[in-house]
Amino acid sequence: MEVGLVGLLRVSWIAGTLPILIASLPCSGLTSFHRALSGFAKRGKTLQSSSEKFTVPQKFFSHFYVVAMVWTTFLLVTTWIYAYRMAPIVSKPFHYYTITSHLTGGSHIFSWHKTYSSPMEYRYGIWQSVFLLLLMEIHVSRRLYETIQVFDYSPSARMHIFGYLTGLFFYIAAPLSLCCNCAPEVYKFMLNGVAQFIVEGKNYVSDIEFDWWVFVISLLKLRWHQWIGAAIFLWGWIHQLRCHAILGSLRDHKEQTSEYVIPHGDWFQIVSSPHYLAEIVIYAGLVVASRGADLTIWLLFGFVVANLVFAAAETQRWYHQKFKKYPRNRNAIIPFFY
Ligand SMILES: NC(=O)c1ccc[n+]([C@@H]2O[C@H](COP(=O)([O-])OP(=O)(O)OC[C@H]3O[C@@H](n4cnc5c(N)ncnc54)[C@H](OP(=O)(O)O)[C@@H]3O)[C@@H](O)[C@H]2O)c1
């Protein structure tokens, strides 16, 4: 099952990225393929079509983050409990660990994961997943707040149903990719816990001890690359927050709800889609925090880059067509390069 989940996620990311890469090739034979794919990816200002066929309102973006919040919170809480009970990296009295392991039927935990060289490495791997999910939770909570409170989606703004379904899939697969190496074991552990609870009821719950300090201190014991990754994540996160605030303020007057203007400030001074650039920085932070050693997270990152560079190219074209005096020195998404 474990290889199945990891394999499935990897295939999905490759299947999502390849068509974008193919459509981006500068080959005249691929023009209609490129047009079809960009039709699926367009939304809001870049999807100005009279036909509403196969589209949904762009404010449905909030659905992505509701799904992401619920799913990431579930994965975070269950993985954190599993890490605390079954993979401690700070010393706890030996008998306590053995008892809890026995109670949950978890002696199999010592047959640690094949990809880790030692039991300690395996435990660090699980705590690393908790850390990555925590960063994801911080990201999707802000995005949910912004889609509801900051962005003033125009009533006429739409997105293609294909883009909508892709977004929903993304926010299920992305958090899962951050913990896919231990997800099957966490799942078995939780099932075991539920079964024990059904059999033993209140006695089972009263046997469980929680030391909140151990919960937190274990995260602080993580290694330097996790903290460098978190710093990169935070850098992208803060710039995305600022750029979204700028976008959200462009239509401060209610009568302007379908008007578009040239944004200025923060990373908008150097690129046209700084919020996409910031998203790439955020996911680069996750790659670094995972030590760059997990192919599934690299493939997730590849999809995010391909998808956002593709969308940024459409946005750049749209700005150049819409505004005659658009700043010529502004690149699409990668400063001084593209
Ligand atoms: N991880 C991923 O793969 C992924 C994929 C997609 C999006 N995202 C993230 O989701 C966030 C939002 O993406 P998005 O594509 O919805 O952004 P967007 O198209 O730029 O739209 C954001 C909001 O700003 C408004 N807006 C944009 N440009 C404007 C202008 N020139 N004048 C006035 N209003 C303007 C839009 O209005 P309209 O609705 O009228 O256009 C919309 O309300 C981004 O940070 C992005 O990184 C991530």
Describe it.
The chain has 338 residues and is mainly alpha-helical. The protein has one domain. The chain is built from twelve helices and two strands, in the order H-H-E-H-H-H-E-H-H-H-H-H-H-H. The protein has helices spanning 2-24, 31-41, 61-86, 94-103, 119-150, 161-178, 183-200, 202-207, 212-220, 224-249, 274-289, 295-322; strands at residues 55-57, 158-160. Strands 1-2 form a two-stranded antiparallel ribbon. The radius of gyration is 23 Å and the shape is elongated. Mean pLDDT is 87; it is low at 93-115. Bound molecules: NADP nicotinamide-adenine-dinucleotide phosphate. NADP nicotinamide-adenine-dinucleotide phosphate binds next to helix 10, helix 11 and helix 12.
Mean pLDDT across every amino acid position: 87
DSSP strand count:
2
Percent of residues in helices: 55-70%
**Beta-strand share of residues:** under 5%
Q: Strand-and-helix sequence, N→C? A: HHEHHHEHHHHHHH
Gyration radius (Cα, Å) is 23 Å
Spans where pLDDT lies below 50 across 5 or more residues:
93-115
**Structural class designation:** mainly alpha
Number of domains: 1
Determine the N-to-C terminus distance. 41 Å
SS summary, helix count: 12
Q: Hetero groups bound? A: NADP nicotinamide-adenine-dinucleotide phosphate
Strand order of the largest sheet: 1-2
Overall shape: elongated
Question: Biggest sheet: strands, sense, closure?
Answer: 2 strands, antiparallel
